[in-house]
């Protein structure tokens, strides 16, 4: 389970929130998230694949040239994990940083909590 949680954290960062192609992002959401998933972010909570896809796509559209870079290694505890990251133009200091915390059920993300250290500009 530890390896799966590590994989979910990294793939979510790159294949959901870092993905600009809507078809690939939607496929990743289906593979990585439970159908009844809940994503908690500063703007609000998003329930289910459609809401997550819309939120991630809209966020990506505001910063299409930004990349997400993990900071350190994930920590895993039972059915949960966390990963710190930064986001900004490739090769530059991040414009903002954050922390993802996931709760995993049946090998998929059931809940994602996104904590931001700075606001995206």
Automatic annotation (TrEMBL):
Residues 16-111 form the SnoaL-like domain. SUPFAM superfamilies: NTF2-like. InterPro entries: NTF2-like_dom_sf (IPR032710), SnoaL-like (IPR037401). It comes from the Bacteria. Pfam families: SnoaL_2 (PF12680). This is Nuclear transport factor 2 family protein.
């Amino acid at each position: 389970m530890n390896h799966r949680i590590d994989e979910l954290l990294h793939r979510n960062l790159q294949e959901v929130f870092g993905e600009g192609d809507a078809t690939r992002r939607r496929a990743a959401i289906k593979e990585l998230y439970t159908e009844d998933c809940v994503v908690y972010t500063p703007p609000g909570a998003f329930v289910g694949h459609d809401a997550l896809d819309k939120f991630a796509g809209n966020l990506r559209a505001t910063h299409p040239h930004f990349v997400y870079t993990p900071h350190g290694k994930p920590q895993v505890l039972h059915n949960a994990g966390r990963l710190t990251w930064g986001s900004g133009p490739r090769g530059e200091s991040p414009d903002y940083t954050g922390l993802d915390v996931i709760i995993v059920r049946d090998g998929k993300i059931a809940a994602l909590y996104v904590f931001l250290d700075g606001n995206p500009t």
